[in-house]
Amino acid sequence: MVLDNLGSSLRSSLDTLQGKSRLDEEDVEEIVKEIQRSLLSADVDVNLVMDLSSSIEERAIEEEPPAGTSARDHVLKIVYEELVDLVGESTELPLESQTILLAGLQGSGKTTSAAKMAWWFSKKGLRPAVIQTDTFRPGAYDQAKQMCERAEVEFYGDPDESDPVRIARDGLEATEEADVHIVDTAGRHALEDDLIAEIEEIEAVAEPDRSLLVLDAAIGQGAKEQAREFDEAIGIGGVVVTKLDGTAKGGGALSAVNETGSSIAFLGTGETVQDIERFEPNGFISRLLG
Ligand code: GDP
After folding, report:
1. Which residues are CB-neighbours of 217 under 8 A, at least 6 positions away?
2. Best of 120, 143, 145, 242 for a ligand 1 pocket test (most atoms within 8 Å of beta carbon)
3. Residue 108 assigned ligand-binding role
4. Does residue 268 sit in helix, strand or coil?
5. CA 190, 108, 236: angle at the middle one, nearest 5?
6. Which of 42, 111, 207, 286 has the most CB atoms in a 10 Å sphere around its CB?
7. Ligand 1 pocket by C-beta < 6 Å: which residues?
């Protein structure tokens, strides 16, 4: 079970419940405090942590453990269910033709994620193509091209064209035989009006089936505002959390999930094209609490 990987202090508070058939409020408070500590240090937004805490507390006190279930197992089950509720299920991604638009700030890992996702879809037997519309960051074209070569997937970009909207239009046309079109976009160092205007125009041309927001795992509370702005502009249908091979636990991304009413689609776990995983709640919860 996922909660086998709990942090050691949470584990020991749960272990103190061993053998008890009823819980008192103090026991529950102790456990909730441990969970709060872990989640806050994993960058989960304080309001989300508070909501989760009150749900766990209420349920642990009010719900009777089913006959034969120990107090410890009962609390574990509630904690687990509430954590799954917090992190959400994986974004649904049908294995069929589709257009995916990537949004995010510069350096978040969009270009890398575009190539990784293309690689992932190719392994699922689909024919992906990456369209690089980032005319803002020098080197974006070469980087995307090289990564797509490594991933052995189709690539479209035009280093001589300065209009990203035109590149999107031409690229979709040039790669029309592909099943999955992944449109990479330019970022900026911060949320700027021209970034939002540009991505709105690209969205209008690409008509994506889903737009994914790419976030660095180290993002803290900034995730919320980014998510809101991009969601208002193009509608965010899922989140990609990158750089989970580092020390950051990625809890900030949950603010984006909450803000957009979406879920996490993929996790980036390294710099090479194969370093991508589909999100699944159990692993992410272990990481947040670990
Ligand atoms: P973009 O500006 O959003 O397109 O970001 P890039 O794709 O260029 O990524 C920025 C930097 O982060 C690059 O040096 C990437 O190699 C690195 N990067 C992206 N994803 C990951 C990841 O999952 N793990 C690690 N360690 N590095 C990553």
Report:
1. 241, 242, 243, 244, 246, 248, 249, 250, 252, 253
2. 242
3. yes
4. strand
5. 80
6. 111
7. 104, 106-112, 137, 143, 187, 242-243, 245-246, 268-271, 275
What's the CA gap between 163 and 205, in Å, rounded?
13
Amino acid in the structure at residue 259 = E
Can you tell me the mean pLDDT for 136-150? 94
Phi first, then psi: what are they for 95, rounded to 5°?
Answer: -85, 75
**Is 111 known as a binding-site position?**
yes
What is the distance in A from the centroid of ligand 1 to the CA of 272?
Answer: 9
Instruction: Tell me, in angstroms, the distance from the centre of ligand 1 to residue 271's CA.
Output: 6
**Measured from the CA of 184, which atom of ligand 1 is nearest?**
4
109 among the known binding-site residues?
Answer: yes
Check whether 249 is labelled as a binding-site residue.
no
- Ligand 1 mean position to 242 CA, how many Å? 7
176 CA distance to ligand 1 middle (Å): 27
Least confident of 94-108, 190-204, 270-284: 190-204
pTM above 0.90, yes or no: yes
Give the percent of the chain with pLDDT over 90: 75
Phi/psi of residue 250, nearest 5 degrees:
85, 10
Mean pLDDT over all residues of the chain? Answer: 92
Q: What is the pLDDT of residues 168-213, one digit of tens each?
A: 999 999 999 999 999 999 988 777 888 899 999 999 999 999 999 9
Q: What pLDDT does 67 receive? A: 85
pLDDT at residue number 83: 93
